[in-house]
Write a structure and sequence with these properties.
The protein has 253 residues and is of the alpha+beta class. It folds into three domains: 83 residues, no CATH class; 53 residues; 99 residues, Immunoglobulin-like (Sandwich). Helices cover 25% and strands 25% of the residues. The chain is built from five helices and twelve strands. The termini are far apart. About 12% of the residues have low confidence.
Length: 253
């Protein structure tokens, strides 16, 4: 049996097994058009003007039909008919459609939950731990994970030495010299340092908070953090409140 492409009129040999397996569908190897072989089916090699079998007139399927075309009209393998397996097409389409449905359903649920949460928070009906919500949104891929905070344990920072005296070059300025060391087992961020001055009644008369950039000589040192066991000596300047100041303390924040 033979079928003729209705697009480019190329004739392709077929047999009953191929027609049954593909349910008559094929793709022309020459023009790539998808067609049904049963719409242009012939018992013998058709002539140019020959018409296909009428509907209801079954072709003769006896014996095995050779897939070779006559030598005088043979076509190259590239021009041979490419049968389309309906089962494979159906399976691929079904899988793609299933994933699309899952994606749309997931997106819809996320939008609905987000809307419910926003409305509930606005009217004060929902009180959810913000950390728990952030973690949930990160796991769902809705929000990027926040940058990890550097390790910090101010209780492991030891004040080795300290002294406060009048600045030798600047009047009415106090100079605080101190040495600290990181006793933790790992590097940690440089702390803020809170300095307080006290009067004779132990009342705070002056205080100032110093950032790492106030007492470190370079930003590259700050990025590296405090090395375990390494000593750091620094100097801080404060306004001199006069004779009222009789004591001071440092706090690491």
């Amino acid at each position: 049996m033979y079928t003729r492409c209705q697009g480019c009129h190329t004739v392709h040999p077929v047999n009953a097994e191929l027609l049954s397996r593909a349910k008559g569908q094929y793709r022309c190897g020459r023009c790539k058009k998808l067609a049904n072989a049963l719409d242009a089916l012939f018992d013998e090699w058709p002539s140019a003007g020959e018409q296909a079998l009428e509907h209801g007139e079954p072709p003769v399927l006896g014996g095995v039909v050779a897939l070779e075309q006559p030598d005088d009209s043979a076509v190259s393998p590239e021009e041979a008919a490419l049968l389309v397996e309906p089962a494979e097409q159906s399976e691929a389409s079904s899988s793609k459609g299933a994933w699309l449905r899952v994606g749309w359903i997931t997106l819809g649920l996320m939008l609905i939950l987000g809307s419910i949460y926003s409305v509930g928070v606005y009217f004060g009906k929902i009180d959810i731990d913000s950390d728990m919500l952030d973690q949930t949104l990160v796991r769902m891929g809705v929000r990027d994970a926040p940058p990890q905070k550097p390790f910090s344990d101010t209780s492991s920072i030891e004040l080795v030495s300290r002294e406060m005296l009048s600045h030798p070059l600047r009047p009415r300025v106090l100079l605080l010299n101190a040495t600290i060391v990181n006793r933790a087992q790992q590097a940690q961020a440089y702390p803020d340092i809170q300095v307080r001055l006290f009067d004779i009644d132990n009342e705070v008369i002056s205080e100032r908070r110093f950032r790492p950039t106030d007492y470190l000589t370079s930003t590259s040192t700050m990025r590296g953090g405090m090395t375990p066991g390494a000593f750091l000596r620094f100097s801080l300047e404060m306004l001199d409140p006069g004779n009222r100041a009789v004591g001071f303390e440092l706090e690491f924040l």
